[in-house]
Design a protein that fits this description.
The complex is a heterodimer. Chain A is built from 14 helices and no strands. By secondary structure, chain A is mainly α. Chain A has a single domain, classed as ABC transporter involved in vitamin B12 uptake, BtuC (Orthogonal Bundle). Chain A is globular, with a radius of gyration of 20 Å. Chain B is an alpha/beta fold. Chain B has two domains: 138 residues, Nitrogenase molybdenum iron protein domain (Rossmann fold, 3-Layer(aba) Sandwich), CATH 3.40.50.1980; 124 residues, Rossmann fold (3-Layer(aba) Sandwich). In chain B, the strands form two sheets. In chain B, strands 1-6-5-2-3-4 form a six-stranded mixed β-sheet, sandwiched between helices. In chain B, strands 7, 8, 9, 10, 11 and 12 form a six-stranded mixed β-sheet that branches. Chain B starts with 12 loop residues before the first strand and ends with a helix. At the A-B interface, helix 3 and helix 7 of A face helix 11 and helix 12 of B.
Chain lengths: 333, 335
């Protein structure tokens, strides 16, 4: 690991400390750390213990995992399509998850328990991934894959709008859809984290494994093929990895915009275009950034600011600044 | 969105359109004659713009609304659940004047008159054509009725009545009296309010000596001061915790903040018509399972109370029903 990667890794515990000491529950960092220490030793700490142990800690860890997943997926997409504007949403997987979640809310499946909508959304993400692969075909070019993803995303967005129009008289449904689409870590706890770890872990492992092939692809399709890269297999594995990462993240927290687009660019400023360093660095940047975004969202007392809004508010101007500073060619590395 | 979340202006407003029938010839000097004025010859594009400006002047803003008080109406179309409920409760004379009720009138999750209005009474959504087809002389509209629909109804001589303040029993009383006046049956309105007062008196007689603090919470929001829940809580013998925290209106309260307040009672809505519906215990269990909630006094003492949404979100008679449900739950705990 390079010095930059170590620094990025060290930023995560710092972000976690900020997050643990932040929240409307009026519990500072010192007390929060004390609560965690005593809870690890088996003490039942009542209400304040529940706030730190059941709310803040798992939520911060989930934010980190989701941020890492989205950022790694963004780096994969930008590497696969050799396009600096590609983000994890470009394959339509997050739109598929969102569509199924909205349909689940429409039929009141959220009343079955807090597991219901994440499960339905994960099914949606998987269905979108399968549909994408079927529509594009195994031997399809990157352009076909990209356009199929865009079309799939547009279709899912249209169907979400249809659901909202059909149920426009159900104010509570509309409210739930809006909140879900804005993305949120509110109420996420240990079960959500445990559901996120297997798919995100597998997706991150796949992303790390595919780094060398993506580096070869950076030289061009022909050069990659001449270096022994099986392009069809690479495409398939990237789609599966992105599907796992984005599907799990979206299913559990809703739509978080810009993390997958901006985090790889921030990482690329230090690591350069090579995916061997870019993918892990982007994941670390995405993790600490998302933890901090959630802490900011929770620190705004009296209002609930969805983290998806903050990522957009911060990410869009930052991306514009980056674009102006380096230009589109510069962003591509 | 429940009507009681709309608190934009302090009093009901009546408006009436200009009394210009559709297709009537315009008198000399009115806007129509100005529209026919010819200017000097202009090049194609500026001429097109001039025509557009002229047309926009022809279709300009409507005349100011005219206050007409509680004038009687013979053909009433209701677009709010509150009006659906009150017009039914006012009795046969009022019902006979209703030519359409809201699309939500039969939804048991929100409406206290689900399945009550005869099938022959049209249920109408807020579409201009659908409403106009009923030929109403009064439309009771909602705060979210689009300006286009309002303008169209008004331009066809339909008076518009919008209730904009829903903060509890006092506003409900005012709304009942308004509607009773519209259907020319004020005694029916007073009978309705006498029934309400009797129920509130029964609730007051059974009120616990020391009120527990309760928070009405759902989807990250709480009902604080100046909401119908404030009156519901007081009638049931509870105090409104969110109001005690200095909050007003329906305000965002994050889960962590709600847990940190350690509410002795948590009140939630459930998608059911009656509290014994399985959906209500399921809703209570779902809230109890949220992270951190199990440590609150409410969860520890089994005081997470689900109230059917049509009562808890009601701005009408349902408020009394919600208070009765809550008080019954509190009294059921007594040995």
């Amino acid at each position: 690991m390079t010095r930059t990667t170590w620094l990025a890794a060290a930023a995560i515990p710092l972000a976690l400390l900020v997050s643990l000491g932040t929240g409307p529950g009026d519990i500072g960092l010192g007390e929060a750390l004390g609560v965690i220490g005593r809870r690890v030793l088996g003490d039942d700490l009542g209400l304040r213990g529940a706030i730190v142990w059941d709310l803040r800690l798992p939520r911060a860890l989930l934010a980190g995992l989701v941020g890492a997943a989205l950022a790694a997926a963004g780096a994969l997409c930008q590497g696969l399509f050799r396009n600096p504007m590609a983000d994890p949403g470009v394959l339509g997987v997050s739109s598929g998850a969102a569509l199924f979640a909205v349909v689940g809310l429409l039929f009141g499946l959220d009343r079955a328990g807090m597991w219901a909508i994440p499960v339905v959304a994960a099914v949606g993400a998987a269905a979108a991934m399968v549909l994408l692969l079927a529509a594009a075909g195994r031997q399809a070019s990157l352009a076909v894959l990209l356009l199929a993803g865009v079309a799939l995303g547009a279709l899912c967005s249209a169907l979400i709008t249809v659901c909202q129009a059909l149920a426009s008289h159900q104010w509570d449904f509309g409210l739930k859809v809006v909140y879900w689409l804005m993305g949120s870590f509110e109420g996420r706890s240990w079960p959500h984290l445990s559901w996120a770890v297997p798919p995100c872990g597998l997706g991150l492992a796949l992303a790390l494994w595919l780094r060398r092939d993506l580096d070869a692809l950076h030289l061009g399709s022909d050069a990659a093929a001449s270096l022994g890269v099986d392009l069809a297999r690479l495409r398939l594995l990237v789609v599966v990895a992105v599907g796992l990462l984005v599907g799990a993240a979206t299913a559990l927290t809703g739509v978080l915009a810009f993390v997958g687009l901006v985090a790889p660019h921030v990482a690329r400023m230090s690591s350069g275009p090579g995916h061997r360093r870019l993918v892990p660095l982007a994941a670390l940047v995405g993790a600490s950034a998302t933890i901090l975004v959630d802490a900011i969202a929770r620190s705004a007392s009296g209002v609930v600011i969805p983290p998806g809004v903050i990522t957009s508010l911060v990410g869009a101007p930052f991306f514009l600044w980056l674009l102006r500073r380096r230009g589109l060619r510069g962003l591509a590395g | 969105m429940p009507a009681d979340r709309e608190r934009s202006s302090p009093a009901p407003s009546w408006t009436r359109s200009r009394a210009i029938p559709t297709g009537a010839p315009l008198a000399a000097g009115e806007k129509g004659s100005k529209c026919r004025a010819r200017g000097t010859r202009l090049p194609a594009v500026p001429r097109g713009l001039a025509v557009l400006f002229a047309l926009s002047a022809c279709t300009g803003a409507p005349a100011p609304a005219r206050e007409v008080g509680d004038a009687p109406a013979r053909r009433i179309v209701s677009q709010t659940i509150l009006a659906d409920e009150v017009l039914w409760a006012l009795g046969p004379a009022a019902q006979a004047r209703v030519v359409g009720v809201s699309a939500l009138a039969d939804d048991p999750r929100y409406s206290g008159v689900a399945g009550v209005w005869p099938p022959a009474t049209p249920r109408r959504a807020l579409t201009s054509e659908g409403l106009l087809a009923l030929e109403p002389d009064l439309a009771i509209i909602a705060s979210f009725t689009s300006p286009e629909v309002r303008e169209l109804l008004a331009s066809h001589g339909v008076r518009l009545l919008e209730f904009t303040r829903f903060t509890g029993f006092a506003d409900y009383r005012a709304h009942v009296r308004r509607l009773a006046a519209v259907v020319e049956d004020p005694p029916a309105g007073e009978r309705l309010l006498a029934d309400l007062d009797a129920r509130l008196a029964r609730l007051a007689a059974r009120r616990p000596a020391a009120p527990l603090a309760a928070i009405s919470w759902g989807d990250g929001h709480a009902a604080a001061g100046g909401t119908s829940f404030d009156d519901i809580a007081e009638a049931a013998g509870l105090s409104n915790l969110a109001k005690e925290k200095g909050l007003e209106g329906h305000v965002p309260v994050a889960l962590e903040l709600m847990v940190s307040w350690d509410p002795p009672v948590i009140v939630i809505g459930c998608p059911a018509a009656e509290p014994d519906d399985p959906a209500c215990p399921a809703a209570e269990a779902a809230v109890a399972a949220l992270p951190g909630v199990r440590a609150t006094a409410a969860a520890r003492s089994g005081r997470i109370f689900a109230v059917p949404g049509r009562a808890l979100a009601s701005t009408g008679e349902g408020m009394a029903r919600a208070a009765e449900i809550l008080q019954d739950r509190l009294l059921a705990e007594r040995p």
